Amino acid sequence: MTRLSLPAAALALLVASSLSAQPKPFTWPTATPQKLGLNVAVLDSLHAEITAGKYGNIDRMLVIRRGTIVMDKTYARDYDRIYGDSLRSTSSLNNSHDPTGPFNYFNPWWHPTYRRGTLHTLQSVSKTVASAVIGAAITRGDFPDINTPILKYWDTTTVANLDDRKRRVTIRHLLTMSGGFDWNESIPYSDPNNTAGALESSPDWVKFTIDRPMMREPGTKFNYSSGESALLAHIFFRATGMDIEEYAARHLFAPLGITNWQWKRTPSGTIDTEGGLYLEARDLARIWQLWLQGGRWNGATVVSEQWVRESVTPHIATSTRAGAPQYGYKWWLYSNPVQKDKLIWAGSGFGGQFPMAFPDQDMVVVFNAWNITGAPTLPLRAVQERLIKAAK
Questions:
Q1: In the chain, what are the domains?
Q2: How confident is residue 57, by pLDDT bands cut at 50, 70 and 90?
């Protein structure tokens, strides 16, 4: 057998080229709030209120301005004590088909952190991250036009309650929570009539959702539906041939230097794109910082500026209530309480997961919490206003 080898100089060049193609390591710089133009008294007062338990079970407060961490506080909670009695009870939050598993929200092995570690459940912030992965795939030319009807990715002979309205549902409708499926997630998750509870108790989340009857024409009204978000994992695989987690690992997480995460799978094996992702707060903040930077990281485009802009453009009203947020492509868009014509780009997850980007203040703030049974919660709008006013 003839052994082929490269000259030493050529081999060194090949190795150097390979190394240079790897994402550059990234560590958040740190500084005092004062140095970055933030009123430290405001941040200290929030910290004191959280420490005193005023807002229930807050686990983390992370504040980043101009790409620099100015405050990062962690709050220890004894969830064995807080939710111990509920762990062994039966309720919509204690999934009956697997009470020891990852959909028992009282089980401290799974919630709020993964195996009692540093990765915090994001719940429905997973929806926003899934949208970001789709944005990366569109940027790379790997994902179809979002006006594509979703039934392209199903054998329609197996789909129940098929009608013309269901045939008109597009990927865009799923991204804007306007698919029109019969779904009620507007009541507490502890209520057995919440459709999301039935979803999580079903053996096949994709089939459960696609088989739901329609209740209105798609695109006409916002209706919060975790099922519509669960469909995106199926569509992503059918459209790209790649599992959405693997795609995220390669084309979103790796460029940002995110190496540690957990992403739950549904009973049928698909990734839980409606609520299954766990990230450490500083890593979650990288995605929001990426959006502030127009989709670029370390000089490279991860997501196109066009997708960033479109995803945080209001596409549908979430409510007729005054002050209610608008909705982009899985992004919650709050009006800036100080600058009314400006927006705050947010995710929102069960229990109190609130990553937020304040583009006009060049600021990212992440709150993690686990308030799941009616405990005091963070007064989000008041906190947003305080943070904005603290920024010089």
A1: 34-142+237-390 (3.40.710.10)
A2: very high
Give the three-state DSSP class for 215. Answer: coil
Q: What is the DSSP string of 172-209?
A: HHHHTT---B----SS-TTSTT-HHHHHHHSS-HHHHH
Structure tokens at 78: 């004894």
**What is d(CA 82, CA 75) in angstroms, rounded to the nearest whole number?**
14
Give the number of other CB atoms < 10 A from CB of residue 117. 11
Using CB atoms within 10 Å of the CB of residue 147, give its burial: 0 to 12 exposed, 13 to 18 middle, 19+ buried.
exposed
**Spatial distance between the Cα atoms of 154 and 223, rounded to a whole number of angstroms:** 23
pLDDT by residue (tens digit) across 365-391?
999 999 999 879 999 999 999 999 999
What pLDDT score was predicted for residue 317?
97
Q: Are 105 and 96 within 8 A, CB to CB?
A: no
Residue 49 CB contacts under 8 Å (≥ 6 apart), including other chains: 55
Q: Say which residue the tokens 């594509």 belong to.
A: 148
pTM summary value: 0.93
- Contacts (Cβ under 8 Å, ≥6 apart) of 195: 183, 184, 185, 225, 227
Q: pLDDT tens, 164-211?
A: 999 999 999 999 999 999 999 999 888 889 999 999 999 999 999 999
Reported as a pLDDT band with limits 50, 70 and 90, residue 96 is low
Q: What is the pLDDT of residue 97?
A: 63
